[in-house]
Amino acid sequence: MIGSVGVRLLSGIHFFLKCVCGVLLGVTLAHADLEDIRKTGTLKVAVYNDFWPWSLKSAGLDADIGEALAKRLGLKVEFLPFDAKDDMEEDLRNMVWKGYYLGYGPADVMMHVPVEQGLINKVSQVKIFAPYFHERIMFGYNSEKFPDFTSPDSLADARMGVEKISLSAMVLLSVEGGKYVNQTRIYDSPQDLMKALRNSEVAMVMATQSQIEAGTSGDARFRLHEALYPQIPGKGWSIGLAVKTENVELARGLQAAMNDLVSSGELGAICQKRDVRLVSP
């Protein structure tokens, strides 16, 4: 019969072995994540359903970049399109580290994640890395009608437009207690907004630089001007990728693939194909 000392000794040995095995298992899993994905032959890439020109279901800039990353890793691509939720933390939970309760997701990697220190600190379950584009809020305006444009005040009584439920709408409609409310038209989508600008329904729009460039490509009438308001990040923000924190090798592989896309000029070519000028982070 084993005495109390023996029991404690065996318990200690069991605890030690459990810890050692746990560490070894953690190391194994951390280094097996990319290998496991290679066995499937497919990289699952999460993209927003409705975020033109970056993604419309499984098409757009983010889809193009995701496919190019998969190709660099020797993999096929499978897109997991999803609707944006109320905040980025929820999107990361649903599409990167946990998945929806109905079984959709998570993906191996999510596109178009703000590379922002506050978000990085909040969501410890994911690694946010590999910034590939720098975005800004801008004014897009008709330079033939308003060659000296510097701000919405330059428009006198002319119409201006924004997309509904957007940072641009929130800011423009709140300036100086609603100064521009009566001049501003609200559009359901950025595509509709840019169509209104091209058709002269509005003389100016406030939107992201990528949306304005994609929506006015090839039309020399239109120019861009910085939108400077306290509510808008003055220098813009960078967007990158997100994977589960423990997927160390996948992150390394994607970072190397992104570096290659940048250095080879392929990332710039992908953007140009979608009528967007690459702005490096």
Question: What do these coordinates show?
Answer:
- The chain has two domains: 33-135 and 236-273, D-Maltodextrin-Binding Protein, domain 2 (3-Layer(aba) Sandwich); 137-226, Periplasmic binding protein-like II (D-Maltodextrin-Binding Protein, domain 2, 3-Layer(aba) Sandwich), CATH 3.40.190.10.
- 41% of the residues lie in helices and 23% in strands.
- The chain contains nine helices and twelve strands.
- The strands form three sheets. A five-stranded mixed beta sheet has the order 4-1-5-12-6, sandwiched between helices. A five-stranded mixed beta sheet has the order 9-8-10-7-11, sandwiched between helices.
- Helix 6 (190-198) crosses helix 7.
- Residues 1-31 have low confidence and may be disordered.
Map the helices and strands.
Layout: H1 4-40, E1 42-48, E2 50-51, E3 55-56, H2 61-72, E4 76-82, H3 88-97, E5 109-114, H4 117-122, E6 126-135, E7 137-142, E8 160-163, H5 167-174, E9 184-187, H6 190-198, E10 204-208, H7 209-216, E11 222-226, E12 237-244, H8 248-264, H9 266-273
Parallel strand pairs: 1-4, 1-5, 8-9, 8-10
Antiparallel strand pairs: 2-3, 5-12, 6-12, 7-10, 7-11
